[in-house]
Amino acid sequence: FTRVLTVRDRSGSCLGMGARRTPPHGSHGSADISHDADSYPQEVEVGNVEYKLKLVSPTPARFQQLVTQLAYRLAEGRGRAVYLLGVEDDGALHGLCPRDMSASLGTLRRMCGHVSARMVVAAQRTKGVPTGRIAEVRIEQFAECAQVEVRIAVLGSAQAGKSSVVGVLAGGPGALDDGKGSARTLVMRHMHELETGATSSISQQVLGFDGASRLLNWTEELARTTSELCASSTRVMTLLDLCGEGSY
């Protein structure tokens, strides 16, 4: 690894490369990461550096814990954090095979989406690593901004496909129309609408996006509630599906 790691103390002051800090319980950790070190200093609970052996297929509950932990590391680093993948908590180098490394980076990328942050793989190392490689990932949080809300009314004549378009956009993974109106059933509100295929009321569907414009409506194939979505989104889009029949 190149020596690029930054660690901050509780006051937010940067510790220089090679500087040492005193974590809890009197043990010592180091901010120095050398490309030829046999192991790294033991992970400490404070600061913006996190070691992870791997991040492969976490359960929804575990994923939420990981997101909370990432938010803490970012707060410690005032919007910046460093993750070392393939490293034990005690600093021992373990390494990951290509498949586990790819899965771990994918999980970390999803975590970043939940805290409006971007990540970049700064370096990877194979020398002295028992299995595969380890990776250093730098994470930076987007500047906070006020939530932006956009409302779009979908207009058109009857049977133009308005409800179908809204259903595809808001219906979740794989919610494509089958050519027979399956998508529109996801947004229709009344039984007579399902029976006739004609929308008689105004329905609204909310889409939420993070700072990187990633859709946040679903996690692990599960839909978020509207309140959860609005709380975690930096941009919210409301689709208003209007009636097309003249009688309505």
Q: Can you put this structure into words, describing what you see?
A:
- This protein folds into 2 domains: 7-141, Translation Initiation Factor IF3, CATH 3.30.110.10; 148-241, no CATH class.
- The strands form 5 sheets. The protein has a 4-stranded mixed sheet with strand order 5-6-8-7.
- Residues 1-34 have low confidence and may be disordered.
- It has 248 residues and is of the alpha+beta class.
- The protein has helices at 60-76, 98-114, 162-170, 191-196, 226-232, and strands at residues 7-8, 14-15, 20-21, 29-30, 49-52, 80-85, 117-125, 134-141, 148-154, 203-209, 218-219, 222-223, 235-241.
- It is elongated, with a radius of gyration of 24 Å.
- Strand 7 (117-125) and strand 8 (134-141) form a beta hairpin.
- It comes from Emiliania huxleyi (Coccolithophore).
- This is GTP-binding protein 2.
- InterPro entries: EF-Tu_GTPase, P-loop_NTPase.
- GO terms for molecular function: translation elongation factor activity.
Short description:
Helix content is 23%, strand content 24%.
Could you give the topology of this structure?
Elements: E1 7-8, E2 14-15, E3 20-21, E4 29-30, E5 49-52, H1 60-76, E6 80-85, H2 98-114, E7 117-125, E8 134-141, E9 148-154, H3 162-170, H4 191-196, E10 203-209, E11 218-219, E12 222-223, H5 226-232, E13 235-241
